[in-house]
Structure prediction request, 236 residues.
Amino acid sequence: MATAVELDKRSGTIRDMFGAVAPRYDLLNRVLSASLDIVWRRKAAEALTLADPAPVLDLCCGTGDQALALRKRGAEVVAADFCVPMLALAEKKYQRLDERRPRGLAGDAMTLPFADQLFGAATVAFGLRNVADLDAALVEIHRVLRPGGETAFLEFTVPETPVLRAPYLFYFRTVLPWIGRRLSKRGSAYSYLPDSVLQFPQRQVFLERMEAAGFTDVACRNLSGGIVNLYTGRRA
Prediction:
């Protein structure tokens, strides 16, 4: 296996990178995932019972697609991200809605600007692997959840089945960066993507990190043959 690339996850670096790709972020998501990202976000929203009427936090919200999936389930959504260009694109989507618009807010995952026990649930779609301190972010999410509050995290994973693993890694390491370089002026972001996925704790290892942050009833579910995992848990 190739030596792991040392990734620069300083807040300024990540913020600038996603700010640069923001104008074509949705297009690239649809092209690179064959529009499966829409299905994955819907499944994350459906994983929450939303029994608690308190608002739902969508963290690392990007251009707002996960917040919109939650809104379709009737949730009151607060959508936070530290990348202002992403938030601006999300706000344009929210403005098309007649009511129950998600509320966008600038905020860093490692130091959330919210009171303790404010939210009934929290989601993060493909954002935790970009946080400089994963454990700090998990602790912060736990802090702002009410007792019994649910979580649904989406993240890319490497398929466990050998027949899928090899073509997936080829696509992820070779084809995906090639497409990214041609559709975005900041093509380097799509070389960063596979490196960040391969270095992120996957499945049971990530569940252990959730438990260490205080979450209980943790579980993960393979989606689309295991190229994505849906992680769930709750604050006891």
